[in-house]
Amino acid sequence: MEMNQRLKNILIHGTLNLILYIITPLIFILILTNFQYFEFNPIFLQAIFIFGMIGVSVSILKNSFSENSNTHHIIGISSTLFSGVYLFFIFGGFSFGLPFGNYSIQTNTFQAELSLQIVAWPLLIASIIRLISSTIKYYEKIKNKSLTIKLKKKISSHKLILWVGYIIYIIISVYLIITAVNGTQISFVVHEDYNIGYDNKNTPELSDDTINISIHFDVINGGIFPILNTEINIEIYTINTTDLTQLSLPNNTKIGESKNNFFEIFAGNNVTKNQTIIVDIFNEWVPGLILFDANLDIRFSLNTYYAGIIIDYRTAEFVYWDAGDL
User: What average pLDDT does range 249-264 have in this prediction?
Assistant: First the structure.
């Protein structure tokens, strides 16, 4: 009878852990990749499978022993610790020294990397709390006494600590859902039009002339969280110039940049329009822009915080440069 119950527990818990550790993450990843927004490193996917198989194996091993045995409890404690390490890995907690974990978004118009370590650490803490609960439960078993905490009534210590861990899981889950929903309401729109600042210094020579380009953009934040501490960098590259010699204005050349433009806050539920960043053209390429036309690749990158998550966002806008407009 007991052997049949163990086989039943092995089947039930093995299946549940297979769903939890492998099937659910892979289905979630498959859905995201089918939307063609997210890209996942193949090594990350392989690691999920390996971690998942370890989790399933530990569950099977645990339930191979009687529920009242010391071995069952010890393996259960190890299983709780493993689940915490697994969740810590999933959200990029092991990316020590690196700001970003395992998640990136890529579309035809932009690319972004997300740092979810703010999620990884609370999940690890919640698992450690559950580990403490399991350890107390095992201590109660071997000492044959119950440790209680007296509030309005006596509550088992391991149950109270266990519920604290579960509450942290719930809070993090709600946080992730709210952040994801609100994050879809954010967009950065770079204007196609731009303004040119040209100064010929009242001399016939082109070498002392200066050109700057004013880039305009809007920030649409339809979410409830503000976008904080945004640093924006812009670089301009040439494409298909009319300079046949490729000396004064060669193709695929960075001709200007604007670094470390800082914006403290873009408020939630708000559209911030017509923000401007002035890009100075490098002096050596000013004569080329005066004489030749070109397509310009304006590369727009920003690093920001949203709901505690670090986001590195990159997009580009292509515009036509007409030297005759000067």
Answer: 94
- At 227, list the tokens: 């976008």
**Sequence-distant (≥ 6) Cβ neighbours of residue 110 within 8 angstroms:** 188, 313, 314, 315
Residue type present at position 207? S
**Domains recognised in the chain with CATH numbers:** 2-102+119-183 (no CATH), 187-325 (2.60.40.10)
Is pLDDT larger for residue 59 or for residue 98? 59
Q: Distance between CA 156 and CA 145 in Å, rounded?
A: 11
| Contact residues for 295 (Cβ-Cβ < 8 A; gap 6+) | 238, 239, 240, 241, 318, 319, 320, 321
Residue 135: name the closest of 87, 177, 74 by CA: 74
Torsion of CA 15, 19, 22, 26, to 10 degrees: 150
Residue in this structure with the two tokens 């380009």, named with its chain if needed: 213
The two structure tokens encoding residue 325: 């407009």
Q: Report pTM.
A: 0.70
Question: Are residues 21 and 51 in contact, defined by beta-carbon separation less than 8 angstroms?
Answer: yes
Q: Extract the tokens encoding 31.
A: 């859905």
Residue 96: phi, psi to the nearest 5? -65, 135
